[in-house]
TrEMBL record:
Keywords: Signal
Source lineage: Bacteria, Pseudomonadati, Bdellovibrionota, Bacteriovoracia, Bacteriovoracales
Signal peptide (residue range): 1-16
Highest taxon listed in the record's lineage: Bacteria
PROSITE patterns: PROKAR_LIPOPROTEIN (PS51257)
Protein name: Lipoprotein
C-alpha cells in the first residue's frame, strides 16, 4: 500500500510540474469519404496538424489541407471558390481552434500565414460540407474556424513549407 501511495505521489507531482511547459506537436487528421449530391467516395482527406499546448491545455490547433482540383473533395468548392485554383500558386484549407484568444488567436495565425505568403479567402461552401461530414462531430469542428488561404506570390521565406512561430513556443514547420 505504501508503494502504491508513493507511486501516486510521484505521478501527481510530475503532472503538476508538467503544467508549466509549452510544447508544440505535429501530426495528421484523416477524414474518410465524402458525398456530393448523388456521388459518394471513399478517398481520404488528409490534414497536416500543428498544435500548441501549455501543459495539457490546448492553446491553438491548426489543420492544413493543400486543396487539389483532381480530388473528389474539390466538388465541395463552389464555382467561385474553384477560381482560387487558377488564381493561386497554392491554395490551402485550414481548420483552426483557439482555446484562449488572449494567448494565441486566429488573428495571430493569419499573421503567421501572411509571413508564409498566404492571404485569407472565403470558402463558405467547402466549410459547410466539412462541418456536416460525419467525422466533424468526432473532431468537434463546430468549435473550429475554417479558412482558405491563397498564395498569390512567392513568400519572403522562399520555402514550399509552412512555418509557424508563436511567441514562447518552438518553431514548427510542415511540408504540404
Amino acid at each position: 500500500m505504501k508503494f502504491f501511495l508513493m507511486a501516486m505521489l510521484v505521478v501527481m507531482s510530475g503532472c503538476a510540474a508538467y503544467k508549466n511547459y509549452n510544447q508544440s506537436t505535429k501530426g495528421q487528421v484523416v477524414i474518410r469519404g465524402g458525398i456530393y449530391q448523388k456521388e459518394a467516395w471513399d478517398d481520404l482527406l488528409v490534414f497536416q496538424r500543428m498544435s500548441w499546448y501549455h501543459g495539457v491545455t490546448l492553446y491553438y490547433d491548426a489543420l492544413f489541407y493543400k486543396a487539389d482540383l483532381n480530388s473528389p473533395f474539390a466538388k465541395w468548392f463552389s464555382a467561385s471558390e474553384k477560381e482560387f485554383f487558377t488564381k493561386c500558386e497554392s491554395f490551402l484549407v485550414t481548420v483552426g481552434y483557439s482555446a484562449d484568444p488572449s494567448k494565441i488567436s486566429h488573428v495571430n495565425f493569419r499573421e503567421q500565414m501572411k509571413l508564409n505568403g498566404y492571404d485569407d479567402v472565403i470558402i463558405n461552401n467547402f466549410a459547410s460540407y466539412l462541418r456536416t461530414h460525419p467525422s466533424a462531430a468526432e473532431w468537434r469542428f463546430q468549435n473550429y474556424k475554417l479558412m482558405g488561404f491563397c498564395k498569390r506570390s512567392p513568400s519572403r521565406l522562399n520555402t514550399p513549407n509552412i512555418a509557424i512561430n508563436f511567441p514562447s513556443f518552438r518553431h514548427l514547420e510542415i511540408e504540404l
